[in-house]
Amino acid sequence: MRALTIGRYQPFHKGHMNVIWEISDVVDEIVIGIGSAQISHELDNPFTAGERVAMIRRTLELNGFKGMSYIIPIEDIQRNSIWTSHLESMTPPFDIVYSNNPLVVRLCKEEGYEVRHPPLFKRDEYSGTEIRRRMIEDERWTHLVPEGTLEVIDEVDGVQRLKDIVREEDSYGRKAEL
Ligand SMILES: Nc1ncnc2c1ncn2[C@@H]1O[C@H](COP(=O)(O)OP(=O)(O)OP(=O)(O)O)[C@@H](O)[C@H]1O
Ligand SMILES: NC(=O)c1ccc[n+]([C@@H]2O[C@H](COP(=O)(O)O)[C@@H](O)[C@H]2O)c1
Fold first, then answer.
1. How many percent of the chain have pLDDT more than 90?
2. pLDDT tops 70 at residue 177
3. Over the chain, what HEC string results?
4. Atom number, ligand 2, closest to the C-alpha of residue 75
5. pLDDT score recorded for residue 169
6. Helix axes 158-171, 128-136, angle to 10 degrees
7. pLDDT digits (tens, 9 = 90+) for 101-113
8. How far is the CA of 178 from the centre of ligand 1 (A)?
9. Were both Cys, which of 49, 67, 76, 124 would link to 37 (CB 3.0–4.6 Å)?
10. How much is the average pLDDT of 128-150?
11. Atom 5 of ligand 2, residue of closest alpha carbon
């Protein structure tokens, strides 16, 4: 059986990692969709699709992931009604979907997929929004992401990028909402 899970992974954190390990215990193969692949260099979406692929690939390798995985960037499209077909056109066929995103759940169910809800781990800390906030505010965050993610963020100077985005937004008079 092959499962699909999708997230923006901005960045990939330990909550995401736990989910992938749990899913791989019950399915043969896992497709990891990287959502909003076209977006980067924004406050809520600082990392490119390629950087997010690298975070996940490296994390799986460094942690000795034994399962079969496909990491596939998925761009957004303007029409929700055909998004599932768009997703299918980019991925190997999958049997079930793991997501807690209400729109993903609805659209996949409407196409007849079984949707399972992965458990949330330490959601107060394992959260992309919280990790980005801590990066910007110079609070501790490195313990919230796996080593592979940390390496990629360091390589691309991700924290500085995020701080620059905040500063640039401020200088244009827009409010940087965290
Ligand atoms: N702490 C967590 N434990 C388990 N799964 C999580 C956790 N946080 C997010 N997820 C799962 O990841 C998917 C969403 O990915 P996403 O990259 O949006 O994570 P996020 O932490 O919610 O990020 P953001 O705060 O940027 O929206 C959802 O299906 C959600 O169930
Ligand atoms: N019409 C669309 O393009 C469409 C519909 C549903 C979900 N998505 C994407 O799926 C991803 C879901 O991940 P999150 O749970 O991290 O939001 C997001 O990137 C979201 O943009 C896109």
1. 93
2. no
3. CEEEEEECCCCCCHHHHHHHHHHHHHCCEEEEEECCCCCCCCCCCCCCHHHHHHHHHHHHHHCCCCCEEEEEECCCCCCHHHHHHHHHHHCCCCCEEECCCHHHHHHHHHCCCEEECCCCCCCCCCCHHHHHHHHHCCCCCHHHCCHHHHHHHHHCCHHHHHHHHHHHHHHCCCCCCC
4. 3
5. 83
6. 80
7. 999 999 999 999 9
8. 16
9. 49
10. 98
11. 80
Report the CATH fold assignment for 2-171: Rossmann fold (3.40.50)
**Domain map of the chain by residue range?**
2-171
Express each pLDDT in 52-87 by its tens digit. Answer: 999 999 999 999 998 999 999 999 999 999 999 999
Residues with CB under 6 A from ligand 2: 6-8, 35-36, 76-77, 80, 83, 101, 103-104, 107
